[in-house]
Amino acid sequence: MEIRRLKSLLKKNKHYITKPRLRLFAVLQKHPALTVNQLILLVPKHDQATVYRNIALFEELGVINRLRLGWLTKIELSDIFQHHHHHFTCINCGKVITLPDQPAIEKNIKSMVDKQGFKAMDHQLEIRGYCPRCKELKRTKSLQSEPVSS
Amino acid sequence: MEIRRLKSLLKKNKHYITKPRLRLFAVLQKHPALTVNQLILLVPKHDQATVYRNIALFEELGVINRLRLGWLTKIELSDIFQHHHHHFTCINCGKVITLPDQPAIEKNIKSMVDKQGFKAMDHQLEIRGYCPRCKELKRTKSLQSEPVSS
DNA sequence: CTATAATTTGCGAAAAATTTGCAAATTATA
DNA sequence: TATAATTTGCAAATTTTTCGCAAATTATAG
């Protein structure tokens, strides 16, 4: 259970284990990537100020990452709590797709970083373009409609 | 001159070539990456509403990209107007470093995307960690101070 | 389990960031 | 250079994020 890891992380850093924090975490576990606003809506028992404060705390502790997906900033659990992965965002339909592991890319990144004398803690790769479905639509009918909201 | 490309892009899409747009573009050419607020401050002749509206337009036309750098969202000219590159952000001092070309990574990304049946339009990679200087500091004195603001 | 001390929450209000309506100014075109 | 269309600047409205403080919750020691 990942929840144990969260709890020990909070304790280690002298923060209380509270209901809002646990609920927030549970919501993040259920959803792949959420905007701040979606998060607020999904934790209706708690005030938005509480959500903002705990997002900040989770960032500080490295529990979550902020992603730039399309024009939106979204939040997801960091690699500590879920398998490391990259994202593809469809420009047309807005869908966010988790990409399969790419060991070669990871290796390349690591070796470049080492060569430059950096110490990398994490990284994120976002690819934007057309998903297979929208690519096809574009080829045939042409892309006329507005992007679907996420 | 890249400015010609901007002008033809505007014309092609039936937008006017205006002073605010040209000034905005010039500022973006001078600086590697700016927050919206920095942009507003650097174009003091024009209203912030104008800046926001033109940021939106530039996004639409693919003139600029939004980057997640550290906790900030910044704006920079897209690959159409400058050489494609990735970023390293130092967690400690906040510095943003442009990484050298990495053909292997580019190739890996391309082949993965093709294999999955996507059509990629662009991508961005951000690596976070410690720059050589802060890495060293960390090893010796330990990292006590607040990150320097960008 | 209970009392105590410390942190966190909820709420209202404030501050910051972004968007909008509309008259005046700017730009394209012919 | 006149005309039509878009864009700008300004003020006001929204939306998003932050803050202060009393009340509630959580940790800890007994």
Can you put this structure into words, describing what you see?
The structure is a homodimer of 150-residue chains. Residues 142-150 of chain A have low confidence and may be disordered. Chain A folds into 2 domains: 1-82, Arc Repressor Mutant, subunit A; 83-150, Dna Ligase, domain 1 (2-Layer Sandwich). The longest helix of chain A is centred in the middle third of the chain and has 14 residues, at 48-61. Chain A is flat, with a radius of gyration of 18 Å. Helix content of chain A is 45%, strand content 21%. Chain A starts with a helix and ends in a 10-residue tail after the last helix. Chain A contains 6 helices and 5 strands. In chain A, the strands form 2 sheets. A 3-stranded mixed beta sheet of chain A has the order 4-3-5. Chain A has a two-stranded antiparallel sheet with strand order 1-2. Chain A has 150 residues and is of the alpha+beta class. At the A-B interface, strand 1, helix 5 and strand 5 of A face strand 1, helix 5 and strand 5 of B. The first copy, chain A, binds a DNA duplex (30 and 30 nucleotides) through residues 14-21, 36-37, 46-50, 52-54.
